[in-house]
Amino acid sequence: xxxxxxxxxxxxxxxxxxxxACRKGNxxxxxxxxxxxxxxxxxxxxLMINFKGETQPYKGEFYLIQNSPAExxxxxxxxxxxxxxxxxxxxxxxxxxxxxxxxxTGFKKR
Length: 110
Known about the structure:
Blueprint: H1 2-23, E1 29-36, E2 47-50, E3 62-65, E4 82-95, E5 98-109
Parallel strand pairs: 3-5
Antiparallel strand pairs: 1-2, 1-4, 2-3, 4-5
């Protein structure tokens, strides 16, 4: 009985590691960071990201990233557009028909 318990334990550990290993590198969306939002309104500011391939700032449906650009290695010398893979959550703040405020929870440059 003891031998079968060890085998079951090792099997469960292997399955557990496999499950978490499969998650690595899988992101919710591909996106394009198009630049910094310079508008002055309550829900404005931050980086603009588009999930539909648009590379121009303020074009199409875009979201505003609440995180600091420094968290992603983006500074005043960065060249836009920046192609990324991201996980994110909605912050619920909308700016009219333009851009929703989001928080990025996972990030990788493509």
